Amino acid sequence: MRRCYSLILSTIVLATSACSDPPKPEKAKDLDQIKPADDPSGSGLGAIPSGAIAKVGSVEIPAETFREIYDLKIKKYTDRGREIPASADRRYRKSIAERLIYHEVLAQEAAKLGIEYDKEALAERESQQKRGIRDWDKHLQRRGETEQSLREMYIAELREKAILEKLGKLEVTPEEIEADYEKIKGNWKSDKPRVRASHILVPIGPQDRPTPGEKPEEPSDEEKKAWEAEAKTKAEELHKQVTAAGADFDKLAEEHSTGPSAQKGGDIGIFTADRMAEEFSEVAFKLNVGDISKPVKTKFGYHIIKVTGKWPAGELPKEALEDQIVNRLRQRKLHQGRRELKDDLLGRYEVVDNIKPTLGPEPARPTKRPTPTDRTAERRTPPGTEMRGAQRGEPEGDDGHGHGHGHGDEGDED
How far apart are CA 271 and CA 192, in angstroms? Predict the structure, then answer.
């Protein structure tokens, strides 16, 4: 067995429920007096327009929308008594303006095609991403975002997906499935039996990440005991729910589990016993297909495990891998489709960017020779081995925030 999904499920956090009103951001003070640290004259960047910062067709994007995000990015520096480097200031201006412009382009294109984004998917994704975060306001402050700005990122991604589906760009054919299976089936050959499982993970204790530069406080023994008792009680309550007549395990996992697998109904893929925590595998391999375990404690928290497939040693049949193949091929098409869609739409829509003239000349990029590490990283990953890193205990998921397509953070320097 060479590949499976990891049990280290990093909590990905982004936004709160769409039903709540986003708080007004606290803007940084005396922004006009802040000079870029690497620009002694303070004249490298022009003044931000007081009117529209951009225009898409006949729709103007007001400066207030831009500054709600930009001021919070700057505040991350001023709160630490630091001056904003001109390079960071320039990057924030450029990326925020481009982000808002593309969001408006997507909104206009979706309206033209008569497409609505999936509001239920938005609400579920926001709810899932907030789980385990005790201090949400602090999290937003660290990100330099508002709830609404994060929500707009998700909406943009959902609009992209809806447009690509409308255009038939995400369809996976039987021929593509068969071809991919032939490429990867050798990677799944093993001399050990395999299991496929889903789980609901209840972590122990708060999952907040510390602010960069801050040392996290060590919890007391009393706090640790209280956190474990709380997690165990929650896991036992969830076990009652998932074992009740007519219960939908996938839906309950989406609603209550943590980590990237929650968005997949708790599915953590196919694995051999040695690829998971010993306590987890010991229970999972004793279950029959369709069985649901009682809460199992590992170092990651409490797991409620449901076995969805079991296979002996040897090659896995296509049926065992087909849904994973479809999902992987669909994700590849989505990733490629997003890049192509963005290029196409920005080429077709009339856009005026009033932030661009404030950026000054493009800074020169230093050239460097590739290191041995760079060369290694550039080597092509064999088909079907994309998740081997997860088998070694590396976190699954994307960049930790669900971004990477022109909607996310502006490469913050923390």
Answer: 10
Instruction: Check: CB of residue 241 under 8 Å from CB of residue 247.
Output: yes
* Angle formed at CA 254 by CA 141 and CA 263, multiple of 5 degrees: 70
Give the whole-angstrom CA distance, residue 48 versus residue 355: 7
Residue 1 corresponds to which tokens in the numbers above? 């067995």
Angle, alpha carbons 336-337-343 (nearest 5°): 95
3-state secondary structure 281-339: HHHHCCCCCCCECCCEEECCEEEEEEEEEEECCECCCHHHHHHHHHHHHHHHHHHHHHH
- Yes or no: say if 272 and 292 are a contact pair by the CB < 8 Å rule: no
Q: 338: how many CB neighbours lie within 10 A of its CB?
A: 20
Phi then psi dihedrals of residue 196, to 5 deg: -115, 135
Q: Is the backbone of residue 404 left (phi > 0), alpha (psi -120 to 50) or beta?
A: left
User: Which amino acid type is present at position 167?
Assistant: L
Q: How many CA atoms lie within 13 A of 267 on its CB side?
A: 14
Helix (H, G, I), strand (E, B) or coil at 257: coil
Can you tell me the distance from the alpha carbon of 49 to that of 65, in angstroms, rounded to the nearest whole number?
Answer: 12
Residues 159/110, Cβ–Cβ less than 8 Å? yes
Distance between CA 95 and CA 90 in Å, rounded?
9
State the DSSP H helix or E strand holding residue 268, giving kind and residue range, or none if neither.
strand 267-271
Which parts of the chain register pLDDT below 50? 1-29, 31-43, 373-406, 413-414
Closest to 14 in 3D by CA, of 121, 154, 119: 154
Please report the pLDDT score of residue 141 as a whole number.
85
pLDDT of residue 316: 95
* Cα 192 to Cα 313: distance, rounded to the nearest angstrom: 5
C-alpha to C-alpha distances, 276 to 23, 94, 168, 193, 242, nearest whole angstrom: 41, 44, 38, 13, 23
Quick one: pLDDT at residue 259? 86
CB atoms under 10 Å from CB of 114, counted, come to 7
**Strand order, beta sheet including 59-62:** 59-62, 52-56, 351-353
Count CB-CB contacts under 10 A for residue 165.
14
